[in-house]
Specification:
Blueprint: E1 5-7, E2 17-20, H1 25-34, E3 40-43, H2 58-63, E4 67-70, H3 76-88, E5 97-102, H4 106-114, E6 120-124
């Protein structure tokens, strides 16, 4: 399964940051495993109520001095800045839509998403 972990801009003192924006537990675990010393991780996507836990190597958090934060929602100002971040390439989005289906195969989109085989699926006329 391909996961959605987007590197995000971080403060100069941090080496790496991640924003996880999916309901897949593994993305949060991977962000912790990949973050550099003093890295920042934002858990933006909530997890399913039926499976809300992850495995966290607390030694990585401790010894790498990771900063893990939860984020929920956005303000109008964030929505105003988002197109500029996308247009400038600061936030990579090209790989977000991983499957494109023609309209006549629209029902397949639900199965693909349910099986976790894609990040985003578009149905196009």
């Amino acid at each position: 399964m391909r996961c959605f972990v987007v590197p995000m801009p971080v403060a100069p003192q941090s080496e790496k940051g991640f924003l996880t924006a999916t309901a897949a537990n593994v993305t949060q675990e991977q962000a912790i495993a990949m973050a550099a010393r003093n890295g920042r991780i934002s858990f933006f996507g909530g997890l399913p109520k039926t499976n809300p836990t992850i495995t966290c190597d607390s030694n990585l958090v401790h010894y790498c001095q990771l900063h893990i934060h939860g984020a929920n929602g956005s303000a109008p100002e964030h929505n105003k800045r988002a197109p500029d971040y996308i247009a400038s390439g600061l936030v990579p989005v090209k790989d977000l839509i991983t499957v494109h289906l023609p309209l006549e195969r629209a029902l397949e989109a639900f199965d693909i998403v349910a099986k976790g085989q894609a990040i985003k699926v578009t149905v196009e006329p």
